[in-house]
Amino acid sequence: MKILYAFLIFFAKTAADDGVLDINVPHLTVKAQNAGNITLQSGLARDLYLEPGPGGKVIFDGEDILEIIKMAKTLPPVWLPHAHNGFFGTFEGGQRIHVKLEARDPENGPLEYQLVAGELPTDVTLDETGGYINGVVPDIERFYTFTIRAINNQTKYADSVFKMEVLSNDNCKSSPCQQHGTCIDNSNNTYSCVCPEPYSGQRCDTDCRSNAFGVRYKNKIPDAQMSAYLSQSTYLASNGRYSGSSWCGTNDNSWLQVDLGEPKTVYKTLYQYRSSTYYVNGYTLSVSLDGVNFNYVNDTSGLHTFSGGASTYTNSLPSPTLARFVRYHPKGYKSGYYPCMRVELYGC
Ligand SMILES: *[C@@H]1O[C@H](CO)[C@@H](O)[C@H](O)[C@H]1NC(C)=O
Ligand SMILES: *[C@@H]1O[C@H](CO)[C@@H](O)[C@H](O)[C@H]1NC(C)=O
Ligand SMILES: *[C@@H]1O[C@H](CO)[C@@H](O)[C@H](O)[C@H]1NC(C)=O
Ligand SMILES: *[C@@H]1O[C@H](CO)[C@@H](O)[C@H](O)[C@H]1NC(C)=O
């Protein structure tokens, strides 16, 4: 060290005339020129060492060279063998999946994942930081191919190709439709039943002939959906529900109307008298889809005669009829009294 120092002094001094530091010993050249160029040069097949002290840096054009070397040395992530051969699995439509992506960072650093090619099924997503594939597989037969990239915190990455087979689920396998209904296997992992008359419902398990719309219940047919023409003061339309306190009209021009809220297929109607003096001898029905244009349901069996013995009568319509509004038109009542009715409707 002392010797080199002596050389430096010596040569710096000797080269001082042209403003240049020039050290030349066998196999070593150190030059600092006026123009600012610095040259460090070792001889043929001789090494050049830059060794910072412990914790020190080697800065090159503002960059920490040691840090750059460390990054360059970092190895890319590695996909574990069973994931690397690419197969992901066979799934049934509607199945919920939660699959861990099996890549590791050789440095044990954190990994992130990206979908870089192909597509995942609808409703299936990549959890980029958690490293999972999550979701519900659609119930449509299809083959999916996609590439997922595992990236470490030094932006080194490795890709893996996955293949995923989806088999459609046979949702009709258990023959869920009753009454010989036709089962349709939907693409959203459900089934639908096409039901023969007079059946309806999810599994054709509703007999429309005995399925009450619930006129008797205010929570099914609210007061606002009960109306009438020429009512008796306190016997308003909203009382005209089966088991209610009864609607009473004024004469045969009066009518009681039920709004089912939306078009429904009506199969049957029920009439209940108010008392043995306040009743109707019979009634006809008219129906409407819009509340303006009404058609009569010409059902002679609906024109029954009150026998005095029974308080309720049910009548099937001649054929199932699509209607939203149903009107009851009284036909005859006890002389000196009023036509009074309480009603229910059946259908789907
Ligand atoms: C300094 O280096 C540059 C680039 O190599 C060169 O063009 C220039 O001539 C050098 N200056 C001197 C004084 O050697
Ligand atoms: C990357 O992760 C490793 C291991 O956890 C950690 O030592 C290193 O500091 C991280 N580097 C960066 C740039 O976050
Ligand atoms: C499933 O699909 C059927 C037929 O397209 C549809 O009627 C039904 O509302 C759907 N069900 C759900 C839960 O999406
Ligand atoms: C149906 O009955 C209504 C009321 O009783 C009547 O006005 C109409 O003419 C009848 N229609 C038919 C086609 O018989």
Automatic annotation (TrEMBL):
<keyword id="KW-1015">Disulfide bond</keyword>
<keyword id="KW-0325">Glycoprotein</keyword>
<dbReference type="GO" id="GO:0005509">
    <property type="term" value="F:calcium ion binding"/>
</dbReference>
<feature type="domain" description="F5/8 type C">
    <location>
        <begin position="208"/>
        <end position="348"/>
    </location>
</feature>
<keyword id="KW-0106">Calcium</keyword>
<dbReference type="InterPro" id="IPR001881">
    <property type="entry name" value="EGF-like_Ca-bd_dom"/>
</dbReference>
<keyword id="KW-0245">EGF-like domain</keyword>
<keyword id="KW-1133">Transmembrane helix</keyword>
<dbReference type="InterPro" id="IPR000421">
    <property type="entry name" value="FA58C"/>
</dbReference>
<keyword id="KW-0732">Signal</keyword>
<protein>
    <submittedName>
        <fullName>Uncharacterized protein</fullName>
    </submittedName>
</protein>
<dbReference type="InterPro" id="IPR000742">
    <property type="entry name" value="EGF"/>
</dbReference>
<dbReference type="InterPro" id="IPR008979">
    <property type="entry name" value="Galactose-bd-like_sf"/>
</dbReference>
<dbReference type="InterPro" id="IPR013783">
    <property type="entry name" value="Ig-like_fold"/>
</dbReference>
<dbReference type="Pfam" id="PF00008">
    <property type="entry name" value="EGF"/>
</dbReference>
<keyword id="KW-0677">Repeat</keyword>
<feature type="domain" description="EGF-like">
    <location>
        <begin position="168"/>
        <end position="205"/>
    </location>
</feature>
<dbReference type="GO" id="GO:0023052">
    <property type="term" value="P:signaling"/>
</dbReference>
<keyword id="KW-0812">Transmembrane</keyword>
<keyword id="KW-0472">Membrane</keyword>
<dbReference type="GO" id="GO:0007154">
    <property type="term" value="P:cell communication"/>
</dbReference>
<feature type="disulfide bond">
    <location>
        <begin position="195"/>
        <end position="204"/>
    </location>
</feature>
<dbReference type="GO" id="GO:0005886">
    <property type="term" value="C:plasma membrane"/>
</dbReference>
<keyword id="KW-1003">Cell membrane</keyword>
<dbReference type="Pfam" id="PF00754">
    <property type="entry name" value="F5_F8_type_C"/>
</dbReference>
<feature type="signal peptide">
    <location>
        <begin position="1"/>
        <end position="16"/>
    </location>
</feature>
